[in-house]
Design goal:
Elements (H helix, E strand, L loop, with lengths): L11 E6 L6 H10 L14 E9 L2 E9 L7 H9 L4 E7 L3 H18 L4 E7 L19 H10 L7 E3 L8 H12 L1 H4 L15
Parallel strand pairs: 1-3, 1-4, 4-5, 5-6
Antiparallel strand pairs: 2-3
Bound molecules: guanosine-5'-diphosphate and magnesium ion (MG).
Protein name: Ras-related protein Rab-37
InterPro entries: P-loop_NTPase, Small_GTP-bd, Small_GTPase
GO molecular function: GTP binding; GTPase activity
């Protein structure tokens, strides 16, 4: 029996946006299942959302990740609803596709901030596995450098700690990215001391 019933805090809403083909659904699937799903295994429903418990710095939080699954094609009408109450917006581009990076600035950033201006903005360069060119005859397919993404972030008031390069194919950087997102949108988690810190212990001798 518990006297004061504590309700669990609501899940943090996090949304994925970006041009078709940058890998949003693949990131979503990786979040959901912890592994890469090739295109033929991706579900192409109208909208997908998945809530997952995320344990960071010893604190468990719930995060719901939303995948547009096509909403990106109906920018004006659908996006305000999609963004409503989002705590973080993940602007995804593909490091091998200049247009997808350019459209972050010319389309996605303004659209998202118009609809959810208190959300944290996260800049995500996906497909970083294409950097080493293993699958493309040894040539790197990268066309957007990390420095360029950083410059873009600085110029657009995006926190530098919210700029990531990941691969939803190899999983490179994915968990670390979600850890950082949970921390930045959740002040409770942010203020937790690291596990090996013992702030209230009296100092001995
Ligand atoms: N090499 C590579 N391919 C990826 C990666 N993420 C997604 N893809 C591929 O990119 C294509 C488009 O991915 P998808 O998730 O459908 O993109 P969406 O339209 O943004 O949802 C698919 O063929 C994926 O398998 C990645 O990190 N590396
Ligand atoms: Mg998709």
């Amino acid at each position: 029996m518990s006297a004061g019933r504590e309700s669990a805090p609501p899940a943090d809403k996090v949304v994925l946006v970006g041009n078709p083909g940058v890998g949003k659904s693949t990131i979503y699937q990786y979040f959901k299942t912890g592994r890469f799903a090739p295109e033929d295994q991706l579900s192409h429903r109208d909208k997908a959302e998945h809530t997952k418990k995320w344990n960071v710095s010893g604190v468990e939080r719930s995060m719901t990740l939303y995948d547009t699954a096509g909403v990106e094609r109906h920018t004006q009408t659908m996006l305000p609803t999609y963004f409503r109450r989002a705590k973080a917006i993940m602007l995804v581009y593909s490091i091998d596709n200049m247009e997808s990076f350019g459209d972050i600035g010319s389309n996605w950033l303004d659209n998202s901030l118009n609809s959810a201006n208190s959300a944290r903005v996260v800049l995500v360069g996906n497909k970083v596995d294409l950097e080493d060119g293993q699958e493309v005859g040894g040539e790197s397919k990268r066309v957007i450098s990390r420095e360029r993404a950083m410059q873009y972030a600085v110029m657009n008031d995006i926190d530098r700690s919210m700029v990531f390069e990941i691969s939803a194919k190899t999983g490179h950087g994915v968990t670390e990215m979600f850890d950082a997102i949970v921390k930045t949108i959740d002040p409770v988690v942010q203020s937790q001391p690291a596990v090996d810190e013992k702030p209230n212990q009296p100092s001995c001798c």
